[in-house]
Amino acid sequence: MVTRMRSEPDMVGAQESAVTEYVRGQLHLMQYLEYYMCRPRYFLEQRHLLPLGDKARMGLVEQYYAFDEPVMLEFLSRKLNSRTRTYLPEVATKTGIPVASCKRQFENIKRIAKQSEDEEGVPLVNEIMERFALSEPLATHYAHILFLNINRVDTTKRCLAHFKFADFDFCASILIQYWTTPTSTMTLDDIDQPLTQHAQQLKSLLIENKANFDCLCTAVRVHISSLIPKTPSGSSASTSTVPSSALLALLENRIVRGSTQIRAVLRVSFSIVADIGASSTLRSVLGIIVEKIVDSFASMGLRSEDMELFYDSVIIHSIGIVTEQIPDSAPAIEALSRTLTGTKLIGRRLFRQKSSIFGPLNKIRPAQ
After folding, report:
1. What is the dihedral of CA 184, 320, 298, 224, to 10 degrees?
2. Across the strands, what pairs with 180?
3. Structural contact between residues 289 and 343, judged by C-beta atoms closer than 8 angstroms
4. Which residues contact residue 138 at a Cβ distance below 8 angstroms, ignoring those fewer than 6 apart?
5. What are the residues whose beta carbons fall under 8 Å from the beta carbon of 86, sequence distance 6 or more?
6. 88-95 and 99-116 are packed helices; what angle lies between their axes, rounded to 10 degrees?
7. What are the phi and psi torsion angles at 265 (to 5°)?
8. Over the stretch 93-102, which tens digit does the pLDDT of each residue have?
9. Which residue from 53, 157, 224, 313 puts its CA 20 to 30 A from 25's CA?
10. Spatial CA neighbour of 238 closest among 184, 294, 175, 308
11. What's the CA gap between 271 and 293, in Å, rounded?
12. Tens of pLDDT along 89-123?
């Protein structure tokens, strides 16, 4: 550390003994501060401890609780216990982050989890901001981490191996926003049980009922076909709002077993939410979405944009069926939107294009 400090502009030409003494003093200061960093609210209130302004004090706390995303990725899906602590040297080797920094980050997330687990009546983000004096963005990241960790959401499956912390952070935000109780003030959000019941009802109404499913497919096909621009070739048009030929072929049933694959994807979409109250489903939710939904779209040669267009159209045209056949349909329509929008957003974030695994089964037949 002394050698590295001597290369700093302010230290050029300084004697080695002076640099050594400076480094020793900084280390002692950090050891002194670390006690108070574990008690950030107390640190901010005790103004006599250090001659620092409020902004500097809050900056110190924010930096101490900041984390490296590769390190935090390693802590997802792991219990915050002594066994994980023994894993820290391996985390340091894998991420290239010093062991001391990995330990600080582990102890921070463990401390936040411990002080938040027994609190009720306050949203988790607000509780973290209040207790640890963190900014809302950083507190929100910690809330997402705790949601994934406490619910043991699996982020280690092979199909999820190439995704980064930011991807799982986004997925946690969608799970909380769309599939937990909207009016809940519990510190740890609960899965919305009425939502799961409506999802089961919607699956029976829209997917298992053949007449309704055929009607829905027809409406979606007409709607998607209408999105093809009728302007001359070469004119500007956003590719995100124009369906691909593969999507049109699927909806026109020119892909072998196209209708069957559409039914399977939609059935899984509703089943995930219908069963997410079970810990096993919540634990596997990201892997299910990738393997059963994302990979199904990709194997048929579809893009993430096609998936988004498809789900948006299904939501629009399912509303009419739900309104006609379910009395007091407002809660069911809300559940429909939350179910499919959540699946769409997570699926798009985790979308990965790949060649078909079904070979000739997905070859597009020429239009009749």
Report:
1. -140
2. 191
3. yes
4. 62, 65, 66
5. none
6. 120
7. -65, -45
8. 999 999 999 9
9. 53
10. 308
11. 12
12. 999 999 999 999 999 999 999 999 988 776 666 78
Name 364's bridge partners.
255
> Nearest to residue 246, comparing CAs of 270, 224, 272, 217?
224
Query: What's the one-letter identity of residue 258?
Result: G
> CA 115, 117, 118 angle in degrees (round to 5)?
90
Give me the amino acid identity at 281: T
- Residue 277 sits at φ, ψ, to 5 deg, of -65, -20
Predicted confidence at residue 221, as pLDDT, reads 93
**What residues form DSSP beta bridges with 255?**
364
Distance between CA atoms of residues 98 and 93, nearest Å: 8
Query: Chain centroid to CA 352: how far?
Result: 15
Burial of 336 (0-12, 13-18, 19+ CB in 10 A): buried
Residue 187's pLDDT is what?
A: 47
Residue-wise pLDDT for 22-50, tens only, equals 666 666 667 767 888 888 888 888 777 77
Q: What is the pLDDT of residue 53?
A: 81
Lowest mean pLDDT among 55-69, 71-85, 136-150, 187-201: 187-201
